[in-house]
TrEMBL record:
Gene3D superfamilies: 3.30.300.30, N-terminal domain of ligase-like (3.40.50.12780). This is acetate--CoA ligase. The gene is acsA. Residues 58-443 form the AMP-dependent synthetase/ligase domain. It comes from Actinospica acidithermotolerans. It is an enzyme of class 6 (ligase). Keywords: Acetylation, ATP-binding, Ligase, Nucleotide-binding. NCBIfam families: PRK04319.1.
Length: 597
């Protein structure tokens, strides 16, 4: 893919770093990571206790936990002590309502300050947190609440009216709706967050949950089909804590910013739990994406560790390609920034290098899923970056590349055993279960859960290869891989090659049915500002891709589309592009970003 390797330091330091990695892998165990957390006094393990109360008990209550930047640029600091008290109040609110252990509390909120007290208070009460994207329409909200057995919903007035009120009668299990912020109208069957909190005590004896008690319910992004509700337990906090150290280099003196939406697993694992468990200060931005605003937050809040997504990096690249002194990024002081990481989709090599050139730091890609609950594979802080690669496995994680059969499923012999492939071969990425944040099931769908395992491995559904040094390279989702004239083509490679062209902002690559080749490669491309779609540019891009990829892999056809369909977590929905190409229904598009809103 991209031959260039980014060395963080001089060669000698790099060699030491690699030794550190190997040393870390040897000396790491999940038991030892767990011992770094406190555990509840008197027994039990509870995410919220580890994330907030532990710091207060250890004398760090005055430290700022959340720095909330409002849409109007106002800044509200919330200390660990305040967050402990507020979350205790919310736990008391739930308790007073008769909401208890393992009852489901859904949130439908943007990144507002109250979200954190609600999330942590829910966990303190032993209830289960289930965050939804605030931008979901009424039907996706209803479906998920129904599937997830919602007992409580915390939202605001506008979202309640637009997304929930009309469906309330179809959700008999939904006993309580709590409205955050100002409430202008009358809404029977709802209560006000501010009033309930004002009446609640700010001391609460956190429920001593068992490490295996259900804590979080996360719906997957729905990139490949109907979203699944992945169940996670309290001991997941051990993985959030440990992986944020390895993969995000996150330490207590960091100012950390995670741009993920709170409705996506990243927004909880690394947007609430991990940074607090590590005792850092977290920036919470209530606003929307805007290049100038983002640079300003990075600069003014002195962000040191930044966790974002390929789609966000590509939006920044599109808006601000250069970093000369007069260009937008050049006008902000990003000197506090020392680590950038990305997740959610493959990160094109071009984006890694753009980070280095424009932000002053390369972007460290890492890989994980809703199901894994925490980062599994990463371009470490300590190691060199291989642009275009997902990185290496984290300590405590065992991964393998498994052979797949003609039907696209993992190959099993007569004894039900898998074949582990050597370096260089493409196959399905599999993980050996045993890390604490591994999902414990898809809610109400045991068959789908069981189908994720074979011969002691968890099958991820992603196609990858591993190089000889242990770096993993993403090829495509199992369902996205294109079969053309006997070749298996991963869309990521083609998309990354197209993105090397100065006109291309984003690309989505699919197989178009073809009577001779089975499928031929088709690319849908969105353009950067200043470039016009047309036959000349199409011919140029086709020739450009052909030079880079060769005729077997290069697209045969290019179409221009400024609004590539994406999930709300920012992933290009190739299955929607494929359905459109074939004139078929688009399937479940509940998680598709609404480009008009
Ligand atoms: P669904 O399972 O509903 O189809 P989804 O898989 O997109 O949706 P998530 O759990 O949010 O839901 O995303 C995990 C997937 O995202 C991974 O399986 C992988 O395909 C992709 N992904 C995440 N990080 C990376 C990465 N660094 N490189 C390549 N792909 C990634
Ligand atoms: Mg998935």
């Amino acid at each position: 893919m991209c031959p260039e390797v980014i060395h963080k330091d001089a060669d000698a330091a790099r060699a030491a770093n690699l030794r550190d990695y190997e040393q870390a892998c040897r000396s790491f165990s999940w038991q030892r990571a767990r011992a770094e957390l406190a555990g509840m006094p008197g027994g039990g393990l509870n995410i919220a206790f580890e994330a907030v109360d532990r710091h207060v008990e250890q004398g760090r209550g005055e430290k700022v936990a959340l720095r909330c930047v409002g849409r109007d640029d106002s800044v509200l600091n919330i200390t660990y002590g305040q967050l402990a008290a507020q979350s205790a109040q919310f736990a008391n609110v739930l308790k007073a309502l008769g909401v208890g252990r393992s009852d489901r509390v859904f949130t439908l909120l943007g990144r507002c300050p109250q979200l954190y007290a609600v999330a942590l208070g829910t966990l303190k009460n032993g209830s289960v947190l289930c965050p939804l994207f605030a931008a979901f329409g009424p039907e996706p909200v209803r479906q998920r609440m129904q599937l997830g057995d919602a007992k409580v919903l915390v939202t605001n007035e506008a979202l309640y009216m637009r997304r929930v009120e009309a469906n309330r009668g179809r959700l008999p299990g939904l006993e309580h709706v709590v409205l955050v912020g100002p409430v202008a109208g009358e809404h029977p069957g709802t209560m006000r967050y501010d009033e309930a909190m004002a009446a609640a005590d700010d001391r609460f004896a956190t429920v001593p949950t068992d490490p295996q008690d259900m804590a979080l319910l996360h719906f997957t992004s729905g990139t490949t089909g109907t979203p699944k509700g992945a169940v996670h337990v309290h001991e997941a906090v051990v993985a959030h804590y440990a992986t944020a150290g390895f993969a995000l280099d996150l330490h207590p003196d960091d100012v950390y910013w995670c741009t993920a939406d709170p409705g996506w697993v990243t927004g909880t694992s690394y947007g609430i739990i991990a940074p607090l468990a590590r005792g850092a200060t977290m920036v919470v931005d209530e606003g929307e994406f805007d290049a100038r605003r983002w640079y300003r937050i990075l600069a003014e809040q002195r962000v040191s560790v930044w966790y974002t997504a390929p789609t966000a990096i590509r939006m920044l690249m599109r808006a601000t390609p250069q970093a000369g002194p007069d260009e937008l990024p050049g006008r902000f002081d990003l000197s506090a920034l020392r680590f950038i990481a990305s997740v959610g989709e493959p990160l094109n090599p071009r984006a890694v290098l753009w980070g280095r050139d424009v932000l002053g730091l390369p972007v460290h890609d890492n890989w994980w899923q809703t199901e894994t609950g925490a980062i599994m594979i990463a371009n470490f802080a300590a190691c060199e970056i291989r642009p275009g690669s997902m990185g290496r496995v984290l300590p405590g994680v065992e991964a393998a590349v498994l052979a797949r059969g003609e039907d696209g499923r993992v190959l099993l012999d007569a004894q039900g055993r898998v074949t582990v492939l050597d370096a260089g071969a493409e196959g399905e990425l599999a993980l050996r279960p045993g890390w604490p944040s591994m999902f414990r099931g898809y809610l109400h769908d045991d068959a789908r859960y069981a189908a994720c395992f074979a011969d002691g491995w968890y099958l991820t559904g992603d196609l990858v290869s591993r190089d000889r040094d242990g770096w993993f390279w993403f090829v495509g989702r199992g369902d996205d891989v294109i079969k053309s004239a006997g070749h298996l083509i991963g869309p990521f490679e083609v998309e990354s090659a197209l993105m090397e062209h100065p006109a291309v902002a984003e690309a989505g690559v699919i197989g178009r049915p073809d009577p001779v080749a089975g499928e031929v490669v088709k690319a849908l491309v969105s353009l950067k500002i200043g470039f016009a779609a047309g036959p000349d540019l199409e011919a140029e891009l086709l020739a450009f891709a052909r030079r880079r990829l060769g005729p077997a892999v290069a697209p045969r056809e290019i179409a221009f589309d400024q609004n590539l369909p994406k999930t709300r977590s920012g992933k290009i929905m190739r299955r929607v592009l494929r359905a459109r190409e074939r004139g078929l229904p688009e399937g479940d598009v509940s998680t598709m970003e609404d480009l008009r809103s």
